[in-house]
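I am writing to request your help with a piece of structural work I have in hand. What I wish to show you is a protein chain and, alongside it, a tokenised description of its three-dimensional fold. Could you please explain, in whatever detail you think fit, how the structure tokens follow from the sequence? You will find the record immediately after this paragraph.
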Amino acid sequence: MKSSRSLLLVPAVLLLFVPPALACLWDSDTLKEESIGLDEVAAVVRGRILKHSTTFYERKVAYTLPLLEQADVKPERYDDLAVAYEKLGRTQEAIATMEAKEKRFPGLYTTAANLGTFYAHAGDYMRGLEELRRAIAINPDAHFGREKYQVKAIEYLQRLAVTPELVQKEELLGLPLDPGDYLFVMNPKEARLGRKRPELPKDVLQGLVGMIRFGSGEKSQHLWFSLGMALAWNGHKNLALRAMRRAELLGHPLASEHAEQLFRTIKPYADKDWGKVKAELDSEWAKGQAWAQEKQRQEDALLAKGKEKQVFGY
């Protein structure tokens, strides 16, 4: 149950956004086959998103804070403490922890990455972008390049704040918004015609799914919508449908149209009413959430027994 060493949170401003990635073309009508090699994505779109409890983070602060006084403390302990503060809503303490880390261990990627997110959460988006870009410059490939997608998301939402109707015209990755533009991918014969497909970075799926798993991206209609778009462009129609359903429930204005187009391409759903399909997808999500809650209870039970090292991984 080791925690990550740097923050994988999505800035609060991002509770509106997106993405996905390049993978080989799958044209299967079964979720099981389509999910081979996409296990993490399949888990997330089905609700298996493990979140730690408030108790977890309170205990983590108490457990980690004394470790910073040790002469041989590792830089990662500062990240562990700062992330715990941030998860508890104590953003200024998280920033102060990262500033202390910078003085003691200057120039580390994780410091810049975390500071960028913390500043964005605090409402200082310009400084947040500055730190995220600094993190990218230090280590472009860390977190599967997640920081570059945080930058894209903040920039997109800044544009959206000025022009709200932009949501009808573009999404984070700049993919074509007409579902007819990607449905040809679902048909192997049409795919062979060589119809032009947008090129997506190889790391986009991992980066953005990580933002859902470890941050507040689970609440972002724009993140789920673009995740669905990219999955659809890669032929992962079952996974795309589930991402679009999340976007629809969170209020994305285009998600319903895309979901209704997608479900008709999936044989087990093709003869069903969309209302029944939605009920099945929602039930599946609820089961995934129940699984995650049980995992959280198990984790808290270990903490109650004083097994911090086992839970925190250090």
Residues 181 and 233 are 9 Å apart (CA to CA). The radius of gyration is 20 Å. Residues 1-34 have pLDDT under 50 and may be disordered. Residues 274-304 form the longest helix (31 residues).
